[in-house]
Amino acid sequence: MSTDLILLHAPSVYDFRKKTILYGPVSDLIPPSTVFEMYPIGLTSIAEYLERAGYNVRIVNLAVRMLRDKNFDAEAFIRRLSAPIFGIDLHWMVHSHGSVEIANLVKKWHPESKVIFGGFSSSYFYKELLELPQIDYVLRGDSTEEPFRQLMDCLAQKKEPESVPNLAWKDSQGRIRENPFSNVPADIDNIMVDHYGYVVRSVLRDRDLISYTPAKDWIRYPITAVLTCHGCKQNCVICGGSSAAFRHFLNRQKPAFRSPESVVKDIRQISRFSNGPIFILGDLQEPGGDYAIKVLSQIQKSKFKNQFILELFYPAQKELLQQMSLACPNFCLEISPETHDPEIRKAIGRPYSDQALEQTIADALDVGCSRMDIFWMIGLPQQTPQSVMETIDYSGYLLEKFKGDKRLSLFISPLAPFLDPGSLGFEQPEKHGFHVLFRKLEEHRQALVSPHWKYSMNYETDWMTRQQNVDTSYEAILRLNQLKEKYGVISKEMARISDHRIKTARELGHTIDDLITKGDYIAIERLKPQVDEINWYPVAEKIQLEVPPPFIGLRPFRALWSLMTGK
Fold first, then answer.
1. How far is CA 536 from CA 17, 96, 172, 193, in A?
2. What is the mean pLDDT of the chain?
3. What CATH number does domain 5-178 carry, 3.40.190.10, 2.60.120.10, 3.40.50.360, 3.40.50.2300?
4. pTM for the full model?
């Protein structure tokens, strides 16, 4: 069967295996590695939607392939591919280097094929992307399934796509055109109808599990996600997915929530091929009314065996937490207050008190939450190095208050590598105390290949320079690590691993800084073995965030066949 469209996912930096880059703790608190190999869920949503329209679509996660096999030749692989159309996601800004480089290779070996970009960052930088000769189309918005189908129809019929909504494109004369940004569906239940089923069918059809895996270690730890909405009600200053960002750059005036039935249908599909953890993305409180109760009640009736990870954007009432426990026994819960300081929290758009936070922690642990994750961040407006250390002191207070309960897990990381383009902090920096250091797409791309993560950061604040952010991040992580060991939240061995990794990275950073000052980039290249060792050293925080056994894995083949056939 011929392939109509190949969707490619790039690593953050295309040639990460050759370059000497100290990535730092920028990806410590998420499943992917430092090259951000996890592709956005929209890739499978688009593929499944187009499959229903009769198109044959293949997904290739180049980042995972490059991570898993040091001898994998991405360019040779791309050369062997065959399709009239290639789609490349530039959703998260961290992929701005790799995605453009992959587009170069596609055009090099398939000059007659069309190249389409999409995703949040593509929508923001669509004009700059279309100035590049290797990119033909950019689909803007958070819901591009139907515009993509219309574009595929036009290309199949060799028609100019003048009526395709949300499309920015080059016409036959090379002129950049912008179609109306009009496809912003309020009802999103007709997308993501069977996207997990699509993945399983495609794996069997293409005999290529690795290309569809979302992360390097996913087969060992198959965590999956279920999306509840497009858009957000919250207006956090540092977030490119805030309400303001959606309104101004993605043309979504208010969130669109999937029905409880659609959410639970996704969960049911996942449970057929995996007994790994399921992360429900989005706060179930957001839609209001009885939405959360409807979702949780249906989960409770279905009695899924998977462990669930749920998230809160703000504190919750005990009644809701109790319903979470009934529906999802031994559930994990996440909340990101970002700082212990209510005034700073208010300044970034999260105006709730420490008392409300502590009550939610107490209630969650009381109803049977198996792990309560608290996330702090470094690089916020009004936040000084001293304030960050006071957040660590507050972490010690919480561990003491809850008597060293091992279910209470606290994490801290820098806001890096980028302050999101489209966020209020990026768009209104003076108002929020940010200094944005580069704004153009190419500036971000080149920053990603800097030998030290400090130089990839696109901002400073009135209260912290980039160097202070780096120094404070390392010190805060070390101190929090010591607290976790003191209260028995992590083992001495895990504490030792984390301590070694952070101290070695800090020392390597100083060495790289000295060599940059001297202009000795050859010496920096000689550091690659040491830098790579620390980049790929075990990350204690990732280990702590994994849901522990009994057993986590994929279902046997007969379950996959059931998912594929519906029988």
1. 12, 22, 46, 37
2. 94
3. 3.40.50.2300
4. 0.94
